[in-house]
Specification:
8-stranded mixed β-sheet, OB fold (Dihydrolipoamide Acetyltransferase, E2P), 12 helices, alpha+beta, 3 domains, 32% strand, elongated
Length: 442
């Protein structure tokens, strides 16, 4: 690489120091933020725009670069390259970074310098193919943290609340990538959200949330059950709504796709050996695991109306949600315990043979691989004045809250009409009567 820099008159990032001038730098973009606007203090009523990215030119050297300017320039420049592309920067301003303040919101880098560039004095452009050294391209698969410095998903779940609010590194496989969802905030700012489901040898599903366009674009390139990621500096939080731990991509985060490390290769071999799964089950799992805001569910149904709507929706993929005022008419917890709590394989999610402790689906010895987790597997009947819904699924957090005891989540489809309870609370009789009579249901 040293010869490459010399031949092309590039300055290596390892040689940077403040106040250097007339530089030409080349590197691969390993991280990037969205464009943001801020009030311009010098021109009241106008805004200045900015975005940042992290550039790397060797396994041990990478720096953060930031550009400021008017909206058109910044948006055009940001749109001209993506994570994974090589760029050249000419005539940037080299400054010493303020370690504590800047690394609170930006990726941590080994350099004590940062790059600043503007429309008037600097240029940034994507490299042509003949300018790029193959060793430079390979850096995209090298994590910015030590390959063993990470938490597995099982570690995160085991530590639970003690990791709430912590920023850590995560190595995991991609189970599914949700569709981006777009929204407008109360102050008319546009936003977006994408939920990625991760998994590994010990955890079958773990949510990672992306709130910025750049990480969402990167996530859309991931192939489920074929991609491993090393996410450096993601924030871990306890999600009270879902009663579980989740990860969030933040401005400090750098995600390495399919990292070339021994630990990542072990995980990659695991997911390649456990790809056999039922696509229909995967689709149902994604629905049931989807983050559902209960406040958005406002439609009130009777049992009869639910059955009619289910018939109309037969053959459609999307589920529908509603509120049902009913009582639990059947809750059989007096039968065999194994019919209430079952062992499931964390690799494929199917029930493990109780006698042999072997998963017949992926042929894994659960006692050897320690891949069994307990799961509620209960069916209840819900009844109102119009009829009864038989064999409704009561699983996961809702079952745990209803019964007052804890077992890990497991969701699998049963039959064509599937009713899943996503919240179960005592109803206010007055509220129930008002809602039902208002729709002519009483």
């Amino acid at each position: 690489m040293a010869n490459f820099f010399a031949l092309k008159n590039f300055t290596a990032l390892s040689d940077l120091h403040p106040n250097m001038a007339n530089l030409k730098i080349i590197g691969i973009v390993i991280g990037k933020t969205d464009v943001k606007g801020f009030p311009d203090r010098k021109n009241i009523g106008s805004e200045r725009y900015t975005f940042s990215f992290t550039i790397r030119d060797s396994p041990t050297h990478f720096v953060n670069a930031t550009s400021w300017g008017n909206e058109d320039y910044i948006r055009s420049l940001s749109a001209s390259f993506r994570v994974g592309e090589c760029v050249t920067i000419e005539n940037p301003l080299i400054q010493r970074k303020e370690l504590e303040r800047e690394e609170k919101f930006s990726p941590a880098t080994p350099s004590d310098c940062k790059l600043l560039f503007s429309e008037d004095h600097s240029t940034v452009k994507v490299c042509s193919s003949y300018e790029v050294d193959t060793k430079l391209l390979s850096l995209i698969h090298l994590p910015v943290k030590e390959s063993r410095d990470y938490y597995s998903l099982g570690d995160i779940v085991a530590n639970g609340h003690s990791l709430d609010g912590r920023i850590i590194n995560v190595l995991a496989a991609v189970k599914s990538v949700g569709e981006p969802k777009y929204f407008t905030t109360s102050d008319r700012r546009k936003g977006q959200r994408c939920e990625v489901k991760l998994y590994d040898e010990m955890e079958s599903s773990f949510a990672m949330i992306c709130w910025d366009n750049e990480s969402i674009l990167l996530a859309q390139s991931w192939v489920p059950r074929e991609t491993v990621i090393f996410a450096s500096d993601v924030r871990i939080n306890f999600d009270k709504f879902r009663n579980c731990m989740t990860a969030t991509v933040i401005s400090k985060t750098i995600i390495t796709t399919n990292p070339e490390t021994p630990e990542a290769n072990i995980l990659l071999n695991f997911i390649r050996g456990n790809k056999e799964t039922n696509p229909q089950d995967d689709a149902i799992d994604s629905y049931l695991e989807e983050s559902i805001n209960l406040n958005t569910i406002v439609d009130v149904y009777t049992v009869k109306q639910l059955k009619v709507k289910a018939l109309k929706n037969e053959g459609k993929d999307d589920p529908f949600y509603g509120i049902l005022y009913a009582y639990i008419s059947t809750l059989n917890i007096d039968g065999e315990t194994t019919k209430v709590v079952r062992n499931r394989c964390s690799s494929c999610g199917y029930i493990v043979n109780e006698a042999s402790s072997i998963c017949t689906t992926c042929n894994k010895d659960s006692s050897k691989f320690k891949s069994v987790f307990l799961s509620f597997d209960m069916l209840i009947d819900l009844t109102d004045h119009t009829g009864t819904l038989h064999s409704c699924s009561l699983t996961g957090n809702v079952a745990e809250e209803t019964l007052g005891c804890t077992v890990f989540l497991s969701d699998r489809a049963r039959g064509r009409l599937r009713i899943s309870v996503i919240s179960c609370k005592l109803a206010d009789p007055v509220e129930a009567c008002r809602n039902l009579s208002g729709q002519g249901n009483i």
